[in-house]
Amino acid sequence: MKSRRLGKSAIIVSEICMGTMTFGSQVDEATSLRILDRSFDEGIDFYDTAEGYPVPPDPKWVGRSEEIVGKWLKTKPREAVLIATKVAGPSHGWFRSPKRSGMTALDRRNIVAAVEDSLSRMGTDYIDLYQTHWADHEIAYDETMEVLDELVREGKIRVIGCSNETSWGLMKSLATAERLGTARYHTIQNNFSLNNRRFEDELAQVCRKEGVSLLPYSPIAGGVLSGKYSAGARPEGTRFTRYFEMGERQEVMAKRFVNEKSVASAVRYGEIAQAAGMRPVTMAVAWSKQHDFVASTIVGVSGENQLDEIFAASDLILPPDVLKAIDAVSREIMYPMG
User: What is the C-alpha separation between 249 and 25, in angstroms, rounded?
Assistant: First the structure.
């Protein structure tokens, strides 16, 4: 498997990263460990988790994903595995984290507490990539960048990044780091897929000009691009089938991913993949990693049976005619996720 650099850092990672947000909820521990082993054997050396995982967020299992990663990490040489995790953003806005009694924030106390807890759960003395899970645009970035810099200097973190950030927020953080002389963000982890190409509008240019790498999550659009939600299907046990039944916040998210436009575009992309002799999932992952501003595409699964179609994208380069057909659908059905 090919590798790419994280921003301007010294860290080189595999072009596919295995995400773990289902580990400990939708996926049990034994299955999670087998998925991790198969990923490692396939050449994946980069693994993404978060203090707030698994999803959906729930106090009864929060932190379990990191615990599973930690158990698996003991079976591998630590230097052979690159671990990314995240500190929960502020709980006073659109989402209340189950961590720290729902009082999370991106200040010194919360960040230090989160790092120490993540290190303990994973049984390691350092984190390769540490990310702010979502931003707080109402506070000064100085304290956040300063404490992250201190943790880098202490050797508890190698490099830092952000997630679910805007163009303004990314530029603000970079300017703050430059002004203060602190560590800078080398990565941004945002939603990016055939069904959500908004990153290309502005953030892609920021990444190119500032030397920041995108780590796209949900490259299969939460499973929608596999075709399993087409024709009004609600497969039992799938994430959005459950989300439609879980209350207002989860239902809002489900409708963003599964709606008339997103399903219609998934059908069209599926036809393109079939004509090109590949599975829709394989095409979606290959498309995601075929961008100059992308370092590693974060994939996630709910079962081992989904791995082969993802692994098939490892060395796949989509030809110009497939890319042209994809762009035509994107122009016809614009912004299906809003």
Answer: 18
243 counts as catalytic: no
Q: CA-to-CA distance for 67 and 63, rounded, in angstroms?
A: 7
Cis peptide before 54 (omega within 30 of 0): yes
Both tokens of 270, joined, read: 């599926």
Q: How far is CA 15 from CA 117, 137, 177, 305, in A?
A: 28, 30, 27, 21
Which pair of structure tokens corresponds to residue 133? Answer: 């899970």
Of 47, 53, 229, 243, the catalytic one is 53
Bridging pattern class, strands 12-14 and 127-132: unpaired
pLDDT tens across the length of the chain (338 residues): 999 999 999 999 999 999 999 999 999 999 999 999 999 999 999 999 999 999 988 999 999 999 999 999 999 999 999 999 999 999 988 789 999 999 999 999 999 999 999 999 999 999 999 999 999 999 999 999 999 999 999 999 999 999 999 999 999 999 999 999 999 999 999 999 999 999 999 999 999 999 999 999 999 999 999 999 987 888 887 888 788 888 777 888 888 999 999 999 999 999 999 999 999 999 999 999 999 999 999 999 999 999 999 999 999 999 999 999 999 999 999 999 99
In angstroms, what CA-CA distances link 338 with 57, 179, 190, 243, 255? 23, 35, 15, 18, 10
Task: Give the chain's domains with CATH numbers.
Answer: 3-189 (3.20.20.100)
The model carries a pTM of 0.96
| Maximum distance among all Cα pairs of the chain, rounded to whole angstroms | 54
